[in-house]
Design a protein that fits this description.
This protein is mainly alpha-helical. 63% of the residues lie in helices and 0% in strands.
């Protein structure tokens, strides 16, 4: 059975070393990235659930809440793609700050959505 070709990280045919170009070696940085990613995921998941559950006394779900939740989920896709690229080592270290900024802005958007859902 033939093995899959090794990933060359942007230098096909010339790579003798299969290590990523921009590897972050510090353990603390990986922990911060994991914590930020998990917290952002939990806040987004809670917001999406609350978009359906928020109208407690009403018979039907407000379409504006669902639209807001869909917009938040669509804003999470670039963050997910950038995170995958960063973890593979295909993206420079400076983009870590961009990932943290996007995660922070998505979290603030979720807070705004929750305030909107509960008419605060």
């Amino acid at each position: 059975m033939a093995e899959a070709p090794a990933q060359t990280y942007g230098t096909p045919g010339f790579a003798t070393d299969n290590t990523p170009l921009f590897r972050d070696g510090s353990r603390g940085s990986r922990i911060v990235n994991m914590v930020v990613g998990i917290l952002t995921f939990l806040v987004v998941a809670f917001t999406v659930i609350m978009s359906f559950v928020a109208p407690f006394g009403r018979k039907r779900v407000n379409a504006m809440n669902i639209y807001f939740a869909i917009c938040i989920v669509l804003n999470c896709f670039p963050l997910a793609v950038l995170t995958v690229w960063y973890r593979r080592g295909n993206v420079e270290q400076r983009y870590r700050w961009l990932m943290l900024y996007i995660a922070f802005s998505v979290t603030l958007l979720c807070v705004c959505a929750l305030l909107f859902f509960f008419h605060v």
